[in-house]
Sequence to fold (369 residues):
Amino acid sequence: MSPSTPLLSVENLRVEFATDDGIVHAVDGISYSIEAGRTLGIVGESGSGKSVSALTTLGLTRSSITTIQGRIVFEGRDLLTLSEEELRQIRGDDIAMVFQDPLSSLHPFYKVGSQLSEAVLAHRQVSKAAARDRAIDLLELVGIPDPHRRVDQYPHEFSGGMRQRAMIAMALINEPKLLIADEPTTALDVTVQAQILALLADLQRRLGMAIVIITHDLGVVAEVADEIAVMYAGRIVEHATAARLFSAPQHPYTWGLLKSIPRLTTSRDEELEPIAGRPPSLINRPSGCHFHPRCPYVRDAHKRIDPRLLPVPDEPDHQVACSLTPSERVETWGSLKAGQASADLRALAEPSSAAQPFQAFPRAQGGGA
Fold:
């Protein structure tokens, strides 16, 4: 595989779940790729489809009520076409995942070392003694003190940060080519968060693996991600390099995420500006732009026309799905950076923007509105 060939390529992925209440459109036509040695951050609120897309990569959403469309190509093989046995050979070996909750992901009845050794024995023809030695090496690699003693302890004897490190050790024990880290810093204090992120970056440099880091917090990926995809209601609404996304974001949802991050430079009496409303139902989705019920800059046309993810003018590597014109987006973000509240900037989205030609988001055949 040439250096320019993506290690993983997700193409128009759609994942739907049939429920008694209707079809849940969990992932709605997302596409992205990642090369070896690079880090992609996927950011969005709970329910935006981040974890479902990752679990689908590993084949963990397959069921009788699930419909999956699109392609997930890893090293030239479409993972969606592989059998369960073929996926088991890849899962935990070439592709590994750090799950959200380390306490529930580690079995409480088995020692941590036994669970790490099992991951080795499932994919390598080695003795139990060699697998145990490998487990000790990985516990030491992720910064757990006294690994020879800790390897024989149970998960409840580990702190939250140490359990998270143990989960990372389990994911890395077979030196995967791709690591998916789903909320790796959730419920950890800020100091431990920084240690975990620094650990992932250090291990990536040592092993040369690609990382997909999933989080709801743009601040988490600010330093570690090369590219960032912002998801909302099952879709990617903005995708850019990390530097570009933080310096010149183009989507109102991204603006809201950025404005809600605490900063050391803000005064103590200044309140954070949350995103109004709540995430939409993935069964009965809003018409037009799915963000329009919460968008401070919405116009009537935005409620009808569903924008596609398109390149920003003169920036092919920066894509956004927004019905505001490029000039309106630039002017609005400039005012937000200057400290103006979003409620005071509605007029920047001129009514004339409703007359602009938009390209509608492509629907799957037979898909709902």
About this structure: The longest helix spans residues 190-207.
